[in-house]
UniProtKB/TrEMBL annotation:
This is Protein YebE. It comes from Roseobacter denitrificans (strain ATCC 33942 / OCh 114) (Erythrobacter sp. (strain OCh 114)). Pfam families: DUF533 (PF04391). InterPro entries: TerB-like (IPR029024), YebE (IPR007486).
Amino acid sequence: MKNLGGGGAHNAGGLGDLLGQLGGRGASGSAAGGLGDILGQLTGGGGASAAGAAGGLGGLGGLLGSLAGARGGDAAGGFENLINQDNPATEPDEEEVARLMLRAMTQAARADGDIDAEEKAKLLDALQDGDPSDMEVVQKILAEPVSAQALAADTPRGLETQVYTMSLNAISPDNQAEGQYLHALAQGLSMKPDTVNQIHDSLGMPRLYN
């Protein structure tokens, strides 16, 4: 049975926290370094995590493992093995992977409400010193309708767990809309409920299924 609710006040995280983290790019001294650098800032990891995000699937697995520890979950054990177990035989382009993960985060963050004009302006302002092509990519991502099904359809085989984990990391799923979005994404990615719950456990999040 799905646990799509979750009560209580909205925890720290979600869109506001995501935007706040990205807004700190300038202060962190992280110059324009491609979408992988933006992804590292979005996940709050700074330069090291940015390098990991843009350092291939192995680096991405390490980044996601560190996110599990930062969330208070179990970063050890089999989490990185879970993330990396079905990596595609041919590694995708690093920028394409970073774009996909950015899309996963922003789609999840918008699951319970679109980004308003002020939030969008703040996001783009945070990118003003970045590469124009990166800003264009982010603008396109923000303009896309929220669709777990479309994101799942565009996810290469072998990146399902990474996309789901990055989506979950962008939010604190404690309302119906976010739970329904994650359920639709998990179904679109053909993920088993046990695998989904394992990811939630690793990130210290309430389980989606019970």
